[in-house]
Design goal:
Elements: H1 6-30, H2 40-63, H3 69-77, H4 86-108, H5 116-119, H6 136-157, H7 167-186, H8 192-199, H9 204-208, H10 212-231, H11 240-244
């Protein structure tokens, strides 16, 4: 099967990131505010996992289904994609997140009195912006470690020795688990595009803390990518789009 063109891969990454941010953050912003019918943190965790599963099956065979700058860098560190393609992926993912955040803001603003800044707009934070008041170090460790876990799952489930066709399920379930652990701590990033996509609309305080949710996920992803390549080297490694094929 021929490798999709870069433009096709970027279109898939834009769409996947857009749906991930709109679906996951949209659930947090729109479906958790009413105590009588809100889905709660469990619902938000499931929403993020479901968006990854569905979009990985929909377009993962085209682009690898990263939808996340940290994943792209971790996959490159693990030898599953060319480093020369990473800048285009990163810019496209951030753009997809920002467009999704803009669409979500437009929808949420349809409710009288809504304020992205006052609501938090599903942004990530530490200290007084952490959902349960966790400090900077705790939030940093959480994001680094859980992003590394996410990348180990991605690289392992797409390994040529892994069962075929199940990678999207493993990846989506792992993202759900990660959210169950970390929503109380940081509101869960593990994805700079997700954090930037809503954070830039959520006011100055959210923007001031965005650095953590860019640096920490990238650090965790690089640790996982390089360590997987050393510890579990796959002599028949294929690109992520090929691994996503069922």
């Amino acid at each position: 099967m021929s490798t999709p063109s870069l433009s096709t891969r970027l279109a898939a990454e834009f769409l996947g990131t857009f749906v991930l941010v709109l679906g996951g953050c949209g659930t947090a912003v729109l479906a958790t505010t009413n105590p009588d019918v809100g889905v709660g943190w469990l619902g938000v965790a499931l929403a993020f996992g479901l968006t990854v599963v569905t979009m990985a099956y929909a377009v993962g065979h085209l682009s690898g289904g990263h939808f996340n700058p940290a994943v792209t860098l971790g996959v490159a560190a693990g030898g599953r994609m060319a480093w020369r393609d990473t800048p285009a992926y990163l810019l496209t993912q951030v753009a997809g997140g920002l467009v999704a955040g803009g669409v979500l803001l437009l929808i949420a603003s349809g409710q009288e009195g809504f304020s992205a800044g006052e609501s938090g707009f599903a942004s990530n934070g530490y200290g007084d912006r952490s959902p349960m008041g966790y400090g900077l170090v705790a939030c940093l460790v959480t994001e680094v470690v859980l992003t590394a876990v996410f990348l180990w799952v991605i690289l392992g489930s797409t390994d040529s020795r892994a069962p075929k066709g199940f990678a999207p399920l493993a990846i989506g379930l792992s993202l759900t688990l990660i959210h169950l652990v970390s929503i109380p701590v940081t509101n869960t990033s593990v994805n700079p595009a997700r954090s930037i996509g809503v954070g830039l609309y959520a006011g100055a305080d959210a923007v001031a803390q965005l650095w953590l949710f860019v640096v920490a996920p990238i650090a965790g992803a690089l640790v996982a990518g390089f360590s997987y390549a050393v510890l579990f080297a796959d002599d028949e490694a294929v690109s992520l789009p090929e691994a996503m094929e069922t």
